Structures are given as structure tokens and as C-alpha cells.
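Take a minute with the sequence and C-alpha cells given here and flag any C-alpha cell that looks odd. Thanks in advance.
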Amino acid sequence: MIIALARPVTNEKINNSETSLTPIIIAIDVSKSMKAVDLFPNRLEFAKQKLLNILDNSKTEAIGVILFAKSSFLLSPVTEDFNSLKILIKNLDTGINFDNGTNIYSTLETTNKLLKNYSNKNLLLLTDGGDKENFDEEINFANKNGIKIYTLALATSTGSAIKEENGNYLTTKDGKIVNVKLNSKIKDLSLKTGGGYIEYSLDNKDIEQILDDINSKSNKEKFEERKYKTYTELFYYPLAIAIFLLLIAFSSMPSLKRTKLPIFILFFTFNFTNSQLIASSIFDFKTIKEANKAYENQDYNKASKEFEKLDSNEFRDYNLANSLYKENKFKEAIDIYKNIKTSSNDLELKKLHNLGNAYAKNSDFQNAVDSYEKALKLKNDSTTKENLQLVKKLLDNKKDDNKNQNKQDEQKNNKENQKQEENKEDSSPKDENKTKKQNKENQKSSKNEQLEQKEEISNFEEEKWLKEIENQKTNSMLKKMESSKDDSISNPW
């Protein structure tokens, strides 16, 4: 049986596995016109959902994503890792203001760069078509570089107003509300490059038709080649022998009488150890119950004594520290809170919050600030934030008091120094030594003030960083792509 578990093998073979997929670049129009509300909730959010649906329905495709307005921005190169791509798309901040315009030529240049190593070049545009009337330049570039352009039109023929972030609608210079419709000229761009054109649908039929058309017109590209080893397993031979020997052993077992003693010993040992465990667990349960009852009745001294009877673990230590805190034994509570180590984020957050409270009660405001800020890194808790702001004010007041006290001490020292200088001729070497000591103390106090100011600045910067982390989106990962042609459209949408 041991030999069988070792899994002996023979005939090692190396096999090759290749992945063949169809490369597609999907470009989302992020110009202002995509904020029109003829599609719910607006065209841009609708386009994001369509892209996520494409990823869900793609089985033989590798996809890259571009955002385009007046310029093109690379969100992701061609990839098979759709899970990571979905995270990028879901966290994409569509509220950001990109450059005004709809530069499809720039999108074609970026597509050509991304697919330069592939024989099939497919571009799918999710757009309302912009407002360009002539796409001859784009058609020539696409045909020259072998790019097939597919368009999923995301707009209605009746059009819609563009709702801005302040709630107002975009207007022209003469005060008229702008109405943006589907630009049907975008159809020429798709049909004259060997691609396809389809208007949106509320289900996934539009996506299925586009993907079927792309796959029928494109040859699959080799994306990845993997090598793996295979073996002929031999474990079943020693296993068969083991089973055969086991059957022989069972068939020739001694009578039951000879086995009564060892069975009894095993049974007794098991029950004895189990009864100890049960007794121990009942005792612990009663102690925990008594401790919790005392805590609820605000008898914190009794609660802490009961918790101390239990074996140390993260939950027992947390409850013990809470009881000591309620007894106003802040130093003892701090020592226990600091030594609690847990893999639970929830318990870690509570521990750091309560540790900050204990430091604050102990007038150690700097450590309190540090504890609260560590807690906020785990979760943006409103109570922790309020406590942090309050302690920071107390810390600032304390610093101000120290500064005022230092200034008063400085003034006193200066006066004393002046008197000593006036009486320098009469002073003894001992007095001169005292003066030197006082000057050194003054220098130390000024250095301490500078250090406190630095700490204050660093705390402010860390708080600012926490807010940035809280509001962080993935737009920082966008890479702006250079283009040889600018968008000539002057409309601000």
C-alpha cells in the first residue's frame, strides 16, 4: 500500500498544447455625446455593460480595450485574462472628462500597433458615430493595414440631450440645448473595410451576430504554446497485491476473545480522554458565560478576572482588554491590545479602534492617531474617523501649549542670559557652565519643535493619501496613445 501511495510511473512523454484565438480590439467612445440619456442610464454606461456582456459570451477570442475621444487611451492590451479585464472595466470612472471630439483615426493607429504581430486585425467600435460626415481617411488607413472595422451603434435616430455632472443640459453658444443623434455615416466606415454594422439591441443578439461574423471572416491565431508531461501509472499493481494480502489477513484473524482486551483498552482510553475534553469545554463555557454576564452587568472587575482564567487566544485577549479598558486600566489594556495577533480583518479593525481609544484616554495622542489611521486603512469607518479628528485637535492643542511654553522658557532664558552677560565680569566659571547648559537646552527645544512640525505634516499627508486611496479608480492605468492626426471637429461634444 505504501508503494501504491508513492505512485510509481513509467513511459514519460512530453506533449504540446496550443491555444488558438481570434484577436479583437474593442474601442469605447468616451466623448461627451456618449453621456446622452437616450439609452439607460446613458450611452457610455450602456457601452460598458455591452463590453462586459461581450466578455461573458466570448469563447474563442482574445480582447484588448481602447477608450477614445479626441485622443486614444489604452486600457488593456490583447489578453485572455477576462477576469482582470472585467475588474478594470467595472472600476472605470466614466465621470472623468476626456478631451472633446471623436478621433477614430487615432483609434485605428492604436489598433494597428496592438495587432502588428497578427494576420487578422479586427476592431469593434462601441460608439454613436460622432458627427463626422466623411470617413475616407479612416477607410483608406484601415484597408491599407488590413483592419476590419465592426460598429455597434449605441444611439437612437431621434437623439437626446447631454446631461452634465451639475444636472444641467449641454447648450450651444446661443443657448439652445444640444441634441445628439446617431450618425448613420459610420456605417460606410464598417462596410467599406470588410467589417460589419449593427444597431444596438436590449438583449445579446447584437453581440452574438458580431462575434459570429468576426469568427467566420477571421483565421484563429496561435496565442500560447504549452508543454506538459504524461506518464503511465503503475500504482494499481502494488495496490492489488496489498488488497489480496489484506483479505488473507482478515480471513485468518484470531477469535474474538483474544481481541477483547485490546478493544476494551482502546475504548476506555478514547472515552477517558473524551470525558476530559468535555469537562474542560463545559468549564470554559461556564467561565465565558460568567465573564460575559459580568461585562453586561458592568461589573468589569469580575469580568476581567473571569477572562483571565481562560487560555489565551485572540478573542479572549480582546474581551479581557475591553474589560480592563472599562476599569480605566488603560496601560494594561494597551499592552494586551498590542499583543493580539489575528487573521480576521474585522477583529483587527476593532482592536485598532479600541487601542486608539485606550491611547487617547491615556493622553498618548500621537499613538492614538497612528492606531486610528491603521484602522482606517482596513475600513473607512465613520466612528473611527470622528475619533481621529477629535484626537488630532487635542494633539494640535497640546503642541500649541508646548510651543507657548517653550517660547516662555526661551524668553526667560534670554533674560537670564542678558543678566549673565551684564555680570559676566563678576561671574565665576561655574556660572559660565550653567549658561552653556541653558543654551544647549534651548537648542534641543527648538529641534523638538521642528520634529513636531514634521510629524504634523506627515500625518496630514497620510490622511490625504487615505482619502486618495478611498476614491481611487483605475483611470490612472490608462495610457494615452500618440496620433499623427488631430480631430478636426470643433464641437465641444
Notes: Strands lie at 9-29, 61-68, 72-79, 121-127, 147-153, 160-161, 179-180, 196-199, 221-233, 479-481. The longest helix spans residues 429-470.
